[in-house]
Amino acid sequence: MKISRSSIDASSWNQQIAALPGAHILQTWEWGQVKLRLGWQPFPQAWRDENDQLVAAALILQRTVSLGGFADRLRVLYAPKGPLLDWDNPPLRRKVLQDLAAFSRQRGAIFVKIDPDVFLASGVPGQPGAQENPTAQAVVEDLRAAGWRFSSEQIQFRNTVLLDLTPDPDTLLANMKQKTRYNVRLAERKGVTIRS
Fold it and tell me: Which value, to the nearest 10 degrees, does the dihedral of the CA atoms of residues 21, 26, 27, 30 take?
């Protein structure tokens, strides 16, 4: 499989990344424009196969940090909730990780930070039914082998809970812990409203 890196224009970025696994709002063109106003420069990157089909993408944000002294203008790169790709595809993930490292060096960055939605495990650790994700373990091994390091400073939430919202509200509340139900009802009493 031949994979090449390219760019995608603004008009089709969101539509194309929506078809990728793990598509996230923090990888959208609009998020890049929000971050542009806050001092970040967006660099949308795409990976295509030999049939010109999009197989991976990453909205990479760049910021220059001033620390003073000899390290006055340091560049950092960040792909929030990215890159987007099929993490079960070892050659693709290795190619994307390699290209991200090369892009970082090309931009003169001191580091590139990624935080893709690759779930390490499901369930509550140490409880019955908890399961590790073998793909995640392979991703961690690939990252370590390529010299990537885990950051103790998380930007996005470390843990995510997926909740099926199809049951009626009373059933959803009944399935929650007592303290959660209390906080939901307290929010209602305090005037918190939710809208689509």
Answer: 140
Is residue 50 within 8 A of residue 84, CB to CB? The reply is no
Backbone φ and ψ for 149, nearest 5 degrees, come out as -125, 145
Residues 110 and 53 sit within 8 Å (Cβ to Cβ): no
How far apart (Å, rounded) are the C-alpha atoms in residues 166 and 68?
53
Q: Measured between alpha carbons, how far is 65 from 72 in angstroms, rounded to an integer?
A: 7
pLDDT digits (tens, 9 = 90+) for 29-55: 999 999 999 999 999 999 999 999 999
Give the integer Cα–Cα distance in Å for 126 and 144: 25
pLDDT in tens, 86-119: 999 999 999 999 999 999 999 999 999 999 988 8
Provide the whole-model pTM.
Answer: 0.78
Q: Which residue has the tokens 């909740």?
A: 163
| Pairwise CA distance, residues 47 & 55, whole Å | 6
Cβ–Cβ under 8 Å, residues 112 and 103: yes
